[in-house]
């Protein structure tokens, strides 16, 4: 595993832990302010950090501090652009939860990797 | 727009045209053989070119040669890794169709950009 992949995997673990703990500052710290989210619930497109956090607040209100684990992760990382895809397991504490598909896009901005795009989904029907 | 972004945008147009025309060879030519697709219909994960093409055959059988247009595209391209996100408009010829969210991951392999990952979805519910 090269250094960029190693750093991106670590950052995605940091993000998952921040979501799990509803730690708003830690979530913000790993994203660009113009992040674009395609989320499981509507709307079609969520643009910018304020709207991104509103989407998570709905999630945190519904879910509390539960399961939020990234698995089956493939990371493709260059020197300043990277993407990753895998699965998220989401659920209340102590449950099996359910799986969601995850794709993330990242850039290196002044030596720090940041998430600029997330796509979370379930198949339709 | 830098050269990498320009080439990636062109490749995504080539892909959309190939899908529109159900041109299997042209679709294959812009992907790695180990492409991973998260599609709108099930299953959760589609892995490898054979399974990827089977998924499109279902689409081509249902849809025929209709609307398949990429719009609102953001491309983030480094020297050998890139990703893009935007919307797809899909529908039968002569209709408005419907919109699907699209994220694509690409690598440059021996001087050629190729798609290694696609994520297509609708919000749930």
Question: What does this entry look like structurally?
Answer:
2 copies of one chain form a homodimer. Chain A is an alpha+beta fold and 125 residues long. Chain A has one domain (3-121): Roll (Nuclear Transport Factor 2, Chain: A), CATH 3.10.450. Helices cover 31% and strands 43% of the residues of chain A. Chain A is built from 3 helices and 6 strands, in the order H-H-E-E-H-E-E-E-E. Chain A has a 6-stranded mixed beta sheet. The longest helix of chain A is centred in the first third of the chain and has 18 residues, at 3-20. The radius of gyration of chain A is 14 Å and the shape is globular. Chain A starts with a helix and ends with a strand. The mean pLDDT of chain A is 94. Chains A and B meet through strand 3, strand 4, strand 5 and strand 6 of A and strand 3, strand 4, strand 5 and strand 6 of B.
Mean pLDDT of chain A: 94
The proportion of strand residues of chain A reads 35-45%
CATH class of chain A: Alpha Beta
Q: Briefly note the CATH topology name of chain A.
A: Nuclear Transport Factor 2, Chain: A
Catalogue the unreliable spans of chain A: none
Shape assignment of chain A: globular
> How many domains of chain A, as an integer?
1
**Residue share in helix of chain A:** 25-40%
- Report the oligomer: homodimer
Find the structural class of chain A using helix and strand composition.
alpha+beta
Rg over CA atoms of chain A: 14 Å
Distance between the termini of chain A: 37 Å
Largest interface here, residues on each chain?
A-B, 33 and 33 residues
What strand order characterises the main sheet of chain A? 2-1-6-5-4-3
CATH architecture of chain A: Roll
């Amino acid at each position: 595993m090269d250094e960029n992949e190693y750093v991106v995997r670590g950052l995605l673990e940091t993000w998952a832990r921040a979501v799990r703990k509803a730690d708003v500052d830690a979530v913000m710290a790993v994203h660009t302010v113009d992040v674009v989210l395609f989320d499981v619930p509507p709307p079609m497109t969520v643009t910018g950090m304020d709207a991104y956090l509103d989407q998570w607040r709905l999630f945190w209100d519904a879910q509390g501090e539960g399961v939020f684990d990234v698995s089956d992760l493939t990371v493709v990382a260059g020197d300043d652009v990277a993407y990753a895809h895998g699965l998220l397991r989401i659920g209340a504490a102590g449950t099996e939860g359910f799986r969601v598909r995850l794709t993330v896009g990242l850039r290196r901005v002044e030596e720090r990797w940041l998430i600029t795009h997330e796509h979370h989904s379930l198949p339709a029907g």
